[in-house]
Amino acid sequence: xxxxxxxxxxxxxxxxxxxxxxxxxxxxxxxxxxxxxxxxxxxxxxxxxxxxxxxxxxxxxxxxxxxxxxxxxxxxxxxxxxxxxxxxxxxxxxxxxxxxxxxxxxxxxxxxxxxxxxxxxxxxxxxxxxxxxxxxxxxxxxxxxxxxxxxxxxxxxxxxxxxxxxxxxxxxxxxxxxxxxxxxxxxxxxxxxxxxxxxxxxxxxxxxxxxxxxxxxxxxxxxxxxxxxxxxxxxxxxxxxxxxxxxxxxxxxxxxxxxxxxxxxxxxxxxxxxxxxxxxxxxxxxxxxxxxxxxxxxxxxxxxxxxxxxxxxxxxxxxxxxxxxxxxxxxxxxxxxxxxxxxxxxxxxxxxxxxxxxxxxxxxxxxxxxxxxxxxxxxxxxxxxxxxxxxxxxxxxxxxxxxxxxxxxxxxxxxxxxxxxxxxxxxxxxxxxxxxxxxxxxxxx
Length: 445
Prior knowledge:
About 35% of the residues lie in helices and about 25% in strands. It is α+β, with helices and mostly antiparallel strands and about 450 residues long. The strands form four sheets. The protein has an eight-stranded antiparallel beta sheet, sandwiched between helices. Strands 6, 7, 8, 9, 10 and 11 form a six-stranded antiparallel beta sheet that branches. The chain has a three-stranded parallel beta sheet with strand order 3-5-4, covered by helices on one side. Strand 13 (about 210-215) and strand 14 form a beta hairpin. Helix 6 (about 245-275) runs antiparallel to helix 7. The longest helix has about 35 residues, at about 245-275.
């Protein structure tokens, strides 16, 4: 059996695939692999561009560990501790929460990943006051190399908790995850194409003045699609002439047009044209920023945060100090002009607050995320090789689940708590059962 990730950047042949349906079966699968001398890696949605799930040992798929275990509400705040199987996909989690009047504090832009995979690779969204998914974790259970299940929280097995809520699964296999959910909220969304000069002149104000702000810049153009979102109570903005139901129906129709016809269907066509005829890329980039007219709408938060991205691509993303974002984008633009590289895919720019998760790319500093992306049928190596030194020159930290060339020596200079992580990992998995070449490269042997 050959396993290939979504982006088709990684292919590997594990000795077998295990699909446990219970925690006991998961423990048995780990014990069996260890008895046979195999390493173990876990796969969720396969959306990591990096070889995080790759193994020639035993690959464990957690899709059947997707149950809702319990919901513990705080009557004073309305928040809830929600415990789910680690294999639950984010799309299912969003439905489970919405049915109970709850939601995630923040999300990334796709919902195909498993809960375990999303937190373990450092998945994040955007917003100067709202951290990534790992910051929302309050407890987890980890299956160790002996098959034993250990519960870890901020106060119980603290170091194991920190190393496991974002650690590429290097301390063991997550079986359950407890997330702090918040009362459901809507987002009032404003999406508009802007000139890049206007964005860069006001980017820090845009980050500060909006709950969630990001933009997609097409490097062959001077334009970008801006997305500004503000959190509102579900009943707000209900007084329009079409009313709430009419607005949602219109929104659903517009979402289908934008995401399925234009953003996916048309975007696939334009990328194929740009691949065959590189000289058309600037004009196609202009088309991409103008095809979707400005729109304003209100919808449940998870429907705004997450989109369907069916056009296949490759991606490198770095977290840089927020203060350096204009400088770095300027250098990327200068390289694109001088090289003439054919880049029909947008650069995605998002923002996050400082946090205290040991291996979070936003650990200890206000962060801007810059993701360079390339259509999968086009070569990406020269583009990514040019972008990476620009990112590392300002102390950039690579996204754990995306393409990069950094190793443990470089990363030791970026993560003050990496020695603590290594110590905890060594104690939890002294035999390297949960290692693979990628974890050895980024963490050290």
